[in-house]
Amino acid sequence: MISKEEVKKIAVLAKLKYNDEELNNFSDQFQDIIKFFDTLDKVDTNGVDPTYQSGDLENVFRSDIAKKSNEREALLKNAPTSKDGLIEVPSIIEE
């Protein structure tokens, strides 16, 4: 069983806000997820080739061709603020 303290720790790491009712629901939901993984662990996969997808899809990539571009001024005209030829954005990291 996953304790409320473990759920609180996970919530802090995931930066989730919750109330007491949600805390109880999280605990039950996490327990259901762990039970599901226990069920998956019991599945016999001997002789089954590993796969990452079930369809016959494959990635199709275009050639990566670098091209010169001198559109800096046009780009900076669309930016709300710029400084020294760069787009200026608000700080998001707390010090």
TrEMBL record:
It comes from the Bacteria. Transmembrane segments: none annotated. It holds the Pfam family GatC. It catalyses: L-aspartyl-tRNA(Asn) + L-glutamine + ATP + H2O = L-asparaginyl-tRNA(Asn) + L-glutamate + ADP + phosphate + 2 H(+); L-glutamyl-tRNA(Gln) + L-glutamine + ATP + H2O = L-glutaminyl-tRNA(Gln) + L-glutamate + ADP + phosphate + H(+). GO terms for biological process: glutaminyl-tRNAGln biosynthesis via transamidation; regulation of translational fidelity; translation. Gene3D superfamilies: Glu-tRNAGln amidotransferase C subunit, N-terminal domain. GO terms for molecular function: ATP binding; glutaminyl-tRNA synthase (glutamine-hydrolyzing) activity. InterPro entries: Asp/Glu-ADT_sf_sub_c, GatC. It is an enzyme of class 6 (ligase). Its EC number is 6.3.5.-. Keywords: ATP-binding, Ligase, Nucleotide-binding, Protein biosynthesis. Allows the formation of correctly charged Asn-tRNA(Asn) or Gln-tRNA(Gln) through the transamidation of misacylated Asp-tRNA(Asn) or Glu-tRNA(Gln) in organisms which lack either or both of asparaginyl-tRNA or glutaminyl-tRNA synthetases. The reaction takes place in the presence of glutamine and ATP through an activated phospho-Asp-tRNA(Asn) or phospho-Glu-tRNA(Gln). Heterotrimer of A, B and C subunits. Belongs to the GatC family. PANTHER family: GLUTAMYL-TRNA(GLN) AMIDOTRANSFERASE SUBUNIT C, MITOCHONDRIAL. This is Aspartyl/glutamyl-tRNA(Asn/Gln) amidotransferase subunit C. It comes from Xylocopilactobacillus apis. The gene is gatC_1.
